[in-house]
Write a structure and sequence with these properties.
alpha/beta, binds flavin-adenine dinucleotide, single chain, 288 residues
């Protein structure tokens, strides 16, 4: 089913994000996770797209297998990294032939070792370019990313992100999924500003259950998600104890998600990271 139709359903969407594992064992773990999350009947599940070569093939393989072997509706992430328009055309043709209907169109990050993103010759510079191309090629429902705290490269702050989100909507994006954040005030402010700019597509908040505090601190510094003082005060003292961290991560993500739903968020996109435990516990806490 196309995302545009999924999102017309009255209840908030629930989705899980996976990544393509690098090893056979990792892939077995992912399938175990998918089996464990399937009974929750998520609205869709998404699979990230790596920085090049074999990881991109793995995304395709996993997305196609989800479509073929499960009842879940997959959304394939797609980035501009390392791909020409011809590469993208071929991939989209394969997706179409396999019945894949949903794409998350992204720019992607610079590959490891380079500090800035460089479009390849014959490729795309921004998610807006990729989105426009995908929409012209085939009849996919295309979602995009957005950043309630601002993308780290946005020189004009959140205003830039709102401007480009409006552009993405005008180019045919049917929904936006946000970078994770820990303070819902960022999302509410962003949503209000988006509303004033005429952005009407659902802005689905991304939820990151913390399992390893040190890792989250490192990753958040790179992706521009701030760590509020209250979160640091709760997490730092227990950060060496992974079981307590995981439980606290589930409790905090559940409270955050409940507040978002209470305040009318159109759905929740949970960064499951190929593990089912936190996503299952959050859904149980929310009675989903
Ligand atoms: C939900 C979600 C899923 C993700 N999945 C993946 C994944 O699978 N693989 C992966 O590699 N990365 C993924 N990312 C990370 C993402 O690729 C990076 O954050 C990347 O740096 C920006 O991608 P974007 O699509 O937001 O880019 P863009 O929207 O192109 O924005 C990039 C920068 O350029 C600016 N900009 C945007 N459009 C224009 C324009 N038309 N003209 C001038 N400036 C512009 C923006 O302000 C921003 O600073 C994901 C992020 C999110 C939030």
């Amino acid at each position: 089913m196309k995302l545009i139709d999924i999102l017309k359903q009255k209840k908030p969407s629930i989705s899980f994000e996976f990544f393509p594992p690098k090893t056979d064992q990792g892939e077995a773990n992912l399938w175990q996770c998918i089996q464990e999350l399937s009974p929750l009947e998520p609205s869709f599940v998404s699979v990230t797209y790596g920085a090049g070569g074999s990881t991109q093939d793995r995304t395709r393989r996993i997305v196609e297998r989800i479509k073929k072997e499960t009842k879940l509706e997959p959304m394939a992430h797609l980035t501009c990294v390392g791909s020409t328009a011809d590469n993208i055309t071929e991939l989209l043709g394969n997706y179409k032939a396999s019945g894949i209907e949903n794409i998350l169109a992204l720019r992607g990050d610079a590959p490891e070792g380079s500090s800035t993103f460089q479009a390849v010759a014959g490729g795309f510079s921004y998610a807006t370019d990729l989105l426009e191309f995908v929409r012209q090629q085939q009849d996919f429902s295309v979602a995009v990313a957005t950043y309630p705290e601002g993308h780290p490269e946005s020189t004009g702050g959140v205003h830039d992100d709102l401007t480009y989100l409006k552009m993405k909507q005008d180019l045919g994006a049917v929904a936006a999924v946000t970078q994770y954040f820990f303070d819902n005030a960022h999302y509410y402010r962003f949503r209000e500003a988006a509303d004033k700019m005429g952005i009407t597509i659902p802005i689905i908040p991304g939820i990151m259950p913390i399992a390893n505090y040190a890792q989250i601190v490192r990753f958040s510094a790179m992706c521009g998600a701030s760590i509020p003082d209250w979160l640091q005060q709760k997490m730092q003292p227990i950060s060496e104890d992974l079981d307590s961290t995981k439980q606290m991560g589930i409790d905090l993500a559940s409270q955050q998600a409940q507040d978002l739903l209470d305040q009318g968020a159109p759905g929740l996109h949970i960064y499951a990271l190929n593990k089912s435990e936190a996503s299952k516990a959050i859904c149980k806490n929310l009675a989903i």
